[in-house]
Structures are given as C-alpha cells and as structure tokens.
Amino acid sequence: MGFALEECNRVFALHVRCVNCIRESVKEIFGGQGGPSDVDELIESGLIEQVRFECVHCESAIGQLVAITCESDC
Ligand SMILES: [Zn+2]
Fold it and tell me: How many angstroms separate the Cα of 74 from the Cα of each of 16, 18, 28, 41, 61?
C-alpha cells in the first residue's frame, strides 16, 4: 500500500526441469515497478510464456515448469 512497497522489486524464480536430462534449472524473472506482485499475477501476466528455456546442463529447449517461488529485495 505505501511507498515502501512500491519501491520493492520482486524477483520470481522459475524452477524448470529439463525433459531431456531431468535436471532442474532456475530462471529468474524480475517483476520490477508496476509488474506482478505475486505468483498468481505473474502467471496471469503471461510473462512466463515469454521466457525462453534452455537447459544449462544439456542445452535442451524443452522444460517442464515445476515450481515458482517469489523473492523480494526488500
Ligand atoms: Zn537438460
């Protein structure tokens, strides 16, 4: 509600499991000002679909989203 909250930068971590090597990668999304403030809003915003997954272990482009966690800088 207040000024402090508006200054808060949300960081979302997408946990994606590679379908090829079954290892998990974490991809961070920065909500930023006016961006989604929680996981539900992040899903509704469609930002996730814009994230391009590439496995850091085997470079496969196919991953399965297993979890989303929300962290904030403040
Ligand atoms: Zn992989």
Answer: 25, 31, 16, 19, 33
